[in-house]
Specification:
The protein contains nine helices and 13 strands. By secondary structure, it is an alpha/beta fold. Helix 8 runs parallel beside helix 9. The longest helix has 17 residues. It starts with a strand and ends in a 16-residue tail after the last helix. The structure holds ligand PBG.
């Protein structure tokens, strides 16, 4: 096997940090390998003035990588799992899934904390974040794009009273303890994260020698969680233009899945629990219940398995 592995990554600082952390893990299990980082520009990085939903959704961050992987220009690509499309091209797959970083969402404010039910202009382009933050504040959501440091700059410039970011990105960039910033961290129960949030996924060509090496970085529980969460999205046929949160946690023999879905004026919530080995069945049941309710239920809120209420 060639011993220089070329790893494609987006150019943002977060993408670079993520790629370097994967390289560190790989270097530990395969010290004979060398790594070269190949920065790749995607449509999603270049068009910054529109919400993603207006120009093709999630795929805009990953298509260029898949071409590069298939043509052999790169050997691996490092992604935030939550930005990945459901269908990967024939021959490619997620071959490495390390332990999940903090999955939670954080409301970041500058110089102040928001009080409950206060009127506030909130920066986020995510429909999932929009409908959930409305459960806590009288939020008027304004589009917010760009990489994490740019988003924080826009907050500091006073364009927003608060912005919502993933704890994972903030932590990876060392931006979770900035002076003057306040962080309201929501538990996954209070504010359901995006499928795959906080998880890194290494994409590569299936069944080659490298894929066996990369599998060495896998965290079993994270891998199960990611598969379960992605399965729910797949069954709902949900792209990033859907207001949907899916979060799962594996605890030894048990997996719990928690999903919220806003469709029209209905807000649906489903909780499932199953033996870990049945994680796909649990994901299917979660999706079935959501679909069922979208089609038939009169109630605008359902809770199964437990009585957690959204506010
Ligand atoms: N949509 C952008 C994006 N994709 C991945 C992360 C970082 C968090 C993660 O790794 O899941 C972010 C930033 C954010 O949502 O705050």
């Amino acid at each position: 096997m060639k011993n220089t592995v070329r790893i494609g990554t987006r150019k943002s600082k977060l993408a670079m940090v993520q790629t370097n952390s994967i390289i560190k893990m790989l270097a530990q299990i395969a010290p004979e390998l060398n790594f070269e980082i190949i920065p790749i520009s995607t449509l999603g990085d270049e068009i910054l003035d529109k919400p993603l939903i207006q120009f093709g959704g999630k795929g805009v961050f990953v298509d260029a990588f898949e071409e590069a992987l298939l043509s052999g220009k790169i050997d691996l690509a490092v992604h935030s799992a939550k930005d990945m499309t459901m269908q990967l091209p024939e021959g490619l797959g997620i071959i490495g899934i390390p332990k999940r970083e903090d999955p939670r969402d954080v409301l970041v404010t500058f110089d102040k904390e928001l009080t409950d039910s206060m009127k506030a202009v909130i920066g986020t382009s995510s429909l999932r974040r929009q409908f959930q933050i409305e459960q806590y504040y009288q939020a008027e959501c304004k589009n917010l794009r760009g990489n994490v440091p740019t988003r924080l700059e826009k907050l500091k410039n006073g364009e927003y009273d608060g912005i919502i970011l993933a704890a994972a990105g903030l932590k990876r960039l060392g931006l979770m303890e900035e002076k003057q910033l306040h962080y309201r961290i929501f538990s996954p129960e209070e504010f359901v994260p995006a499928a795959g949030q906080g998880i890194l996924a290494v994409e590569g060509r299936l069944h080659d020698e490298l894929s066996e090496i990369v599998a060495g970085i896998n965290d079993k529980e994270t891998a199960i969680s990611l598969k379960a969460e992605r399965r729910v999205l797949e069954r709902l046929n949900a792209g990033c233009h859907e207001a949907i949160g899916v979060y799962s946690e594996v605890n030894k023999d048990l997996i719990r899945i928690d999903a919220v879905y806003k469709k029209g004026d209905k807000t649906l919530r489903v909780k499932e629990e199953a033996f870990t080995g049945d994680y796909l069945k649990a994901a299917d049941r979660t999706a079935d219940k959501l679909l069922d309710c979208v089609c038939t239920a009169h109630t605008d809120l359902i809770c199964t398995k437990s009585s957690a209420k959204m506010r």
